[in-house]
Amino acid sequence: KVSLEFEKGKVTAIVGPSGAGKTTLVNLILGLFEPTRGVIAVDGVTLKEYKLETWHSRVGFVSQEPFIYHSTISENIVFSRNAYSQESITRAAQIANAHGFISELPQGYETMVGDRGMKLSSGQQQRICIARAVLDEPEVLIFDEATSSLDTLSEKQVQEAIGSVSSNRTVIIIAHRLSTIEHADKIVVLEDGQVIEEGSHQELLSRNGQYSRLATSHN
């Protein structure tokens, strides 16, 4: 009994305690699960009518744990897909707020990052993953607790990256830290698989409901 709308050019955040259904919701949006009732539609076309591969080509996904392999920065952004120009790679890195630190590395985009990206900070790794997600210029971007394991400075840098990629895209943020989503256009509070609140950060705080309690407990 969940009815939600994710608007283009807007950031929608999903919050709620563990087990509320946040991950299930993401899996439904990605088409990995099918709803037992009702439909998921994109621009009026149900997800069932899409080939899964076609739908996934329109979606960028950034998970909680950045996956970086022992190769160059460029190769980590391209991530075994078809050939991309250096211009495209650089543009994706700029959008992801990563070009600055990459340019300062010894070999720039050709710098080897070490096993599991050991030469990069966690915030830098996550921004590489955001660049990877936007390289194909997806229409929908999903961030699944993408800042939950970062320190405050790294979180701020990744938040800025999320802000810069949000223009003209449908952005969905699954959040653990409420500081990540204060500026979201809409916040949806889930509990036991139900939407119990919906609104902006300020609207939800003023209602003194579950979101307000979550915000108080995080401070």
Keywords:
219 residues, alpha/beta, six-stranded mixed β-sheet, two-stranded antiparallel sheet, 8 strands, 35% helix, globular
Helices, strands, pairings?
Elements: E1 11-15, H1 22-29, E2 41-42, E3 45-46, H2 52-56, E4 59-62, H3 73-78, H4 86-95, H5 99-103, H6 122-134, E5 140-144, H7 152-165, E6 170-174, E7 186-191, E8 194-199, H8 201-206, H9 210-218
Helix pairs in contact: 4-6, 6-7
Structure description:
By secondary structure, this protein is an alpha/beta fold. The protein contains 9 helices and 8 strands. It has a 6-stranded mixed beta sheet, with helices on both faces. The chain has a two-stranded antiparallel sheet with strand order 2-3. A hairpin with a 2-residue loop joins β2 (41-42) and β3 (45-46). α4 crosses α6 and α6 (122-134) runs parallel beside α7. The longest helix has 14 residues, at 152-165. The two termini are 32 Å apart. The relative contact order is 0.20.
How much strand content do the residues show?
Answer: 15-25%
Distance between the termini: 32 Å
Q: Order of strands across the widest beta sheet?
A: 4-5-6-1-7-8
Number of strands: 8
Backbone shape: globular
Major sheet size, sense and barrel closure? 6 strands, mixed
Gyration radius (Cα, Å) is 18 Å
Question: What value does the average pLDDT take?
Answer: 86
* Helical fraction: 25-40%
Low-pLDDT residue spans: none
Task: Please identify the structural class as seen in this structure.
Answer: alpha/beta
**Number of helices in the DSSP assignment:** 9
Can you write the helix and strand succession as a string?
A: EHEEHEHHHHEHEEEHH
